[in-house]
Amino acid sequence: MPFSHESEGFAVATPDIEAAATRLAGVAVRTPVLESPLLNRRLGFRLLIKAESLQLTGSFKFRGAYNAIAQLDATARQAGVIAYSSGNHAQGVAAAASLLAVPATIVMPSDAPQIKIDNTRAWGANVVLYDRASEDREAIGERIAGESGAALVRPYDEPQVIAGQGTIGLETVQQLKELGVTPAAVVVPCGGGGLSSGIALALSVHWPGIPVWTVEPADFDDTARSLAASRRVAVKTGGTSICDALLAPMPGRLTFPILKGLGVRGIAVTDESVRRAMSCAFRDFKLVVEPGGAVALAAALDGAFEAPQEPVLCVCSGGNVDPILFAEILRGRGTK
Amino acid sequence: MPFSHESEGFAVATPDIEAAATRLAGVAVRTPVLESPLLNRRLGFRLLIKAESLQLTGSFKFRGAYNAIAQLDATARQAGVIAYSSGNHAQGVAAAASLLAVPATIVMPSDAPQIKIDNTRAWGANVVLYDRASEDREAIGERIAGESGAALVRPYDEPQVIAGQGTIGLETVQQLKELGVTPAAVVVPCGGGGLSSGIALALSVHWPGIPVWTVEPADFDDTARSLAASRRVAVKTGGTSICDALLAPMPGRLTFPILKGLGVRGIAVTDESVRRAMSCAFRDFKLVVEPGGAVALAAALDGAFEAPQEPVLCVCSGGNVDPILFAEILRGRGTK
Fold it and tell me: pTM for this structure?
């Protein structure tokens, strides 16, 4: 009974996603679905890419942040929002807050890449730096929230954030119906599970039973392990990956029950596969995709799906990659 | 009287562009219009990008080729098509012919990049190589056309090719009207003028008098010089540019009267500006844009438009760039 979720008490209901889509209409980019007939021939099946790397701020995070902040009332908007993130969530919250004229404070590690700090500030956010070794970002966040009354925008364990990311699923359903396509499988990058749970929920209404896969970096496949074990398990830290956006050690408290309840399954890919996928995105789709954004494409190129009758849809979730790393990957360096 | 073109006997009429759009619907990618609010703030005006680099085959050339080949009758289709090109036109013709099940022969220089030869062959085209130093590609093309009866698809001086490229203009009008935007200026990369004349013609119906600019590489600014002189003049060859797609020495016989008749003006950019524009496309739009595809963006970043009240629209026309060159540009090498 994988689709009896309405009665399972998920933190998010499908009407929340539809409401989010209405809020985001005309604000978020309706990112295109792309394909490469030549790549399809090489793969032996039809691969469709949802190019969410073309979203405002270069990642899907803008959708969830905007959907959450847009629902604050006038008093809460005045008190502002706070988030802690070194990456895409920081820029997503800063941009959404800027567009909604809400003050934002972003707590970032002092060793975060300067470009990410600069971009977050360029959106008008107040950036508070902390020392990753000696300070606890959640404690700092809670202290600032306590003092200012600012609302905390969590990166994934927040119903309205999950609903916002789910609009990618809704949008893709519309786009694929225009193409006359029902995919054989949908493959989604996974960190804390906000993106994948939102998309899986949106798809479950229109295509009940459609296979959805989360993809994580090897050594950070907590979601795959948790789904296999039917309970949240953490991976031991200590591994490394170029997928800086996907290093969450455990699935979310709210996101995991959705993934589990909908029968989502998890797979993992190596950094080497991710590099190949980034080169493929460059060559075959003319897209800049960051490592964490390319894991789903990597899984498809790895042969996770063998010549299905219907197309496979991959979400490419972000494009915020350091130019020097991107250049190295194009030159084929650093690949084992 | 710049818009009395219906009576001026242009080779292409605006209904040809509308008919081309109908032929291309559901076949060509409806490429997105993108913007970066952070870049807008840095520039001091709103810049919109028509991301035609995301088109099938990685450039706008697919549109014109498909529109031309789709109009051949059954007998002509059986005899096939022929084109000579080392670059984007080759892939555009090969792909369009493949989708329409028409045999294609592409005459390419034997020193063309292997990836371009491979891609053209992957689309099923018969590739005929010639020696750039000792052989004349037009003579080879005409000989093959004479023997086989294949129809020659010219890269720009062909009414149905111009009409196909013009669909970018029509599509952009629709997209900008959805955004409630009338641009202050439209900026288009220019080689032989097929793209720019088609777009200028499409726009002239909906936004009469809108300023359209062609952009060329410095030393290959034959269109700018011709427009200034009100007659077709050739640039002397001998210069070099990384914009391999834009090295035509003289505007087209059919394209130039359209550009001139519509009051289009021309500007030129340096390779250094082009490199900066490619980095900007990577960083701010997450797009892979080839040198020739980035010249219009380069002109906008150079300050060709100073804080206009309405947005400036730039066409990014292609993304077929060698990964090693792209990596060098990201690393800031080779920039004077």
Answer: 0.95
User: Of B125, B78, B135, which is closest to residue B105 (Cα–Cα)?
Assistant: B125
Residues from chain A that touch B279, judged by Cβ atoms under 8 A, are: 323
ipTM value for the complex: 0.95
Q: Please tell me whether residue A191 adopts helix, strand or coil conformation.
A: coil
What is the DSSP track for A55-97? SGGGBTHHHHHHHHHTTS-HHHHHH-EEEE-SSHHHHHHHHHH
Amino acid at B288: V
Of A316, A290, A315, A312, nearest in space to A303 by CA: A312
Instruction: Tell me if A37 and B95 make a contact (CB, 8 A cut-off).
Output: yes
Listed in sequence order, the residues at least 6 apart from B75 whose beta carbon sits closer than 8 Å to its beta carbon are none
**B227-262 as b/e: b if 16+ CB within 10 A:** beeeebbebeeeeebbbbbbbbebbbebbbbbbbbb
Contact flag B58-A286 (C-beta cutoff 8 Å): yes
Nearest Cα neighbor of A262 from A332, A176, A162 is A162
pLDDT in tens, A26-57: 999 999 999 999 999 999 999 999 999 999 99
Tokens 């190019």, located at residue:
A51
Are B87 and B320 a contacting pair, CB within 8 Å? yes
**How far apart, in whole angstroms, are the C-alpha atoms of residue A187 and residue A215?**
7
Residues of chain A predicted below pLDDT 50: 1-7, 335-336
Q: State the distance between the two ends of chain B, measured CA to CA, in whole angstroms.
A: 43
Fill in the amino acid letter for B163: A
Q: Residue B313: what are its φ and ψ, rounded to 5°?
A: -105, 125
Residues contacting B236, CB < 8 A, separation 6+: none
Residue B109 near residue B137 (C-beta atoms within 8 A): yes
State the alpha helices, DSSP H only, in B124-267: 137-148, 159-179, 194-206, 222-229, 255-261
Provide mean pLDDT across the span B79-92: 93
Average pLDDT over residues B59-68: 98
- A54 min Cα distance to partner chain B (Å): 6
Q: How many CB atoms within 10 Å of residue B37? A: 15
* Contact list, A38 vs chain B (CB under 8 Å): 119, 122-123
Structure tokens that stand for B122 in this block: 């992957």
Structural domains of chain B ordered from first start: 5-59+158-330 (3.40.50.1100), 62-152 (3.40.50.1100)
Coil, strand, or helix at residue B316? strand
Residues from chain A that touch B29, judged by Cβ atoms under 8 A, are: 32, 34
Q: Which burial class, exposed, middle or buried, applies to A209 when counting CB atoms under 10 A from its CB (0-12, 13-18, 19+)?
A: exposed
